[in-house]
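=== RUN LOG ===
request id: a7f3
mode: sequence -> structure
chains: 1
length: 341
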Amino acid sequence: MTTEPPRPTTGSDFAELNRRVTRAGLLERRPSYYAVRLSAVSLALLGGWTAFFLVGSSWWTLAVAAFLAVTFAQVALVAHDLAHRQVFRTKRPGEVAGRIAGNLGVGMSYGWWMEKHTRHHNNPNHDDLDPDVAPEVLIWATESAWGRRGLKGFIARHQAGLFFPLLTLLGIDLKVSSVKALIRGDMKRRNLEAALLVVHVAGYLAALWLVLSPAQAIGFLVVHQAMFGVYLGMTFAPNHKGMPHPDGTEDFLRKQVLTSRNVTGGRLTDALLGGLNYQIEHHLFPAMPTPNLRKAQPIVEAYCAEIGVAYEQTSLLESYRQALRHLHEVGAPLRERVARG
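=== RESULT ===
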């Protein structure tokens, strides 16, 4: 049997894929799924805080902190789906629910995160346009390593080893970035977002102060925020880190597929990563409901093979290895310079 050569790049490639996915009914809303998921996450959040008050002033509260860390991450993943309008047909209810989940639920500005995440989706892994690869604490492009001194230079040299420890600060960083965005004032419904954020922070700190001893409160805060940051970071880290950085000349389909990585696994992986393990399908069809991504995956993979576009898919552990390897390689020039003296 002969194999036809890959089709040349054309602007109609995504249009054809979109037709196939639409024919399969995979862009249709899944209200029953989201009714169950939102109810389950809401009950878990309510149950976690109920357990916090029932356990009271005890070191067993650290177990509650760990449970709430997982629950907070699941609430954030729900906010992600709401931001992509996967849940509701119209914009308004999604924004209302998104602010409740983001600002009130986990203490993160929904408006700030949505604007940032939209820029990421428009230009994934682009060195100048994707805020997720901007050279901040970690650097993802070798060119950004030069000129780093002091603490930043130390982190850049050893960022692969420091990656997971740094994730413990992600939850706090989300709150700090949210406050900075609110101070700048460049978002819609700024006063509402600020009020919800204040209610979250005030209620959270008041609960710790009134129920726990000072030492227990500090322990709860550290365990909860650190585990929340690590879990949330681990859901996003496998998706693009270590994948190619585009130059902006790619068509939509290639820009999204070549910069993304899928993670293999079963239903448990789907639940733990909130469907983000189907990152390629999610980037091609951001409004596709999470449960439909698994069904779209074989269609997208087969089509990419048909048109000769590389489709990256690996295990969860291997995705972390690839991301850490990339971080290690990016920091190599700084390590070499220090070694030379």
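=== NOTES ===
The radius of gyration is 21 Å.
The mean pLDDT is 88.
=== END ===
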